[in-house]
C-alpha cells in the first residue's frame, strides 16, 4: 500500500510556529497544538515487504483518526544508503515527523540530525538507530522476549539438540542484530546441546533469502533448524524447504507474518513462529509521531500520550515506547489473522 500527499511548504512553517508557541507538553494531552495538519513521512527499511505494508496501513489508520497526513516512501533494497535521500527529502519538505525503520544504527544518523535541526521530529520504529539520532523509538517487544521466544520455538521443534543456523535480514539491521546477539548469549548459557553453525544474511530480499537457504542446507547436511528473525527470510526459507527433502527434517521458525506463512503451516513445513502485530506497531509509531510533532509530548521519559484504540502509552528510558509481547502462531490460530 502506498500513500501520497501533497505537502504544502506553508504547513511546516505553521507547525514550527505552533511548536514554538506551545513548547513541549507534559504528555497529559493538553499541552499540544493539535494533530490536525501534521504531516508524517513513513520510511520503512524497504518497499514491497508485506510486514511494512501492514505497518503503513496502521500508520494510515492513525493519521486518518488524527486528521494528519502520511506519505510512505522508501527504497527497493533494504540498505542504509538508500534511505538517506528519502530522509533528506522529508527534511526539505519540512514534514512534522519522520517515522523510520533503520537499516543501520549509525549510517543514517547525519541525515536524521539534519532533519531534526530543520524541525522534523524523528521516530524510529521496528529497527532503531543509536538513541541520539531520534526523539523516540517505538519498539515492538523487548529484545530479550523476542530472542527467547525464537529459541524456545526452535529448541522445541528440534527436540532440544542439534545444529541450527540463522537466516537474517541485512547485515547491519539494528533489530535483527540485537536479537541475534541475545540469542547467541542465551544459547551459550541455556542450550548446551544446540550448536549455532552459521549466520547468513538474505538482505530482506526474497530471492537472496531463498538462495541462502539452499546454501545453508547444502553446507550443513546435519542441520536441524533454521531460525529466521525476519518475515522475508522465514517465508523464503519455508518456501524452499517445503519442496525439498529437508521438509520434516529441518525445522523453520523465527518471525513471520501469518498471511505469508499460512500455507507452510498448513502443509506441515512450519510448526510455529512468532511476531507482534505490525499494523499496531505502525499505528502506535504514528500516534507517537503526531504527539511529538504537535508539541503534545517532548519525548522525555515519563511523558504519556494517548494512542487511540491502543490506549495510553508512557515513554520509557532512552526514549523507548514498548508495544507489547511477541505472539506465537501455529496451526491452531493461524486462520484467525489477516496480515
Ligand atoms: C522484516 C524486517 C523487519 C522485522 C521483521 C520481523 O519484515 O526485517 O524489520 O522487524 O522482518
Automatic annotation (TrEMBL):
Q: Where in the cell is it found?
A: Cell envelope
Reply yes or no: does the keyword Lipid metabolism apply.
no
Gene3D superfamilies from the UniProt entry:
3.40.50.2300
Identify the InterPro entries for this entry. Bact_Solute-Bind_Prot2 (IPR050555), Peripla_BP_I (IPR028082), RhaS (IPR013459), SBP_2_dom (IPR025997)
Q: Which UniProt keywords apply?
A: Signal
Q: Where is the signal peptide?
A: 1-21
In this chain the Periplasmic binding protein domain maps to 40-295
Out of the domains of life, which is the source? Bacteria
NCBIfam families of this UniProt entry?
RhaS (TIGR02637)
PANTHER family in alphabetical order: ABC-TYPE SUGAR TRANSPORT SYSTEM PERIPLASMIC COMPONENT-LIKE PROTEIN, D-XYLOSE-BINDING PERIPLASMIC PROTEIN
Put simply, this protein is called Rhamnose transport system substrate-binding protein
Q: Which organism is it from?
A: Promicromonospora iranensis
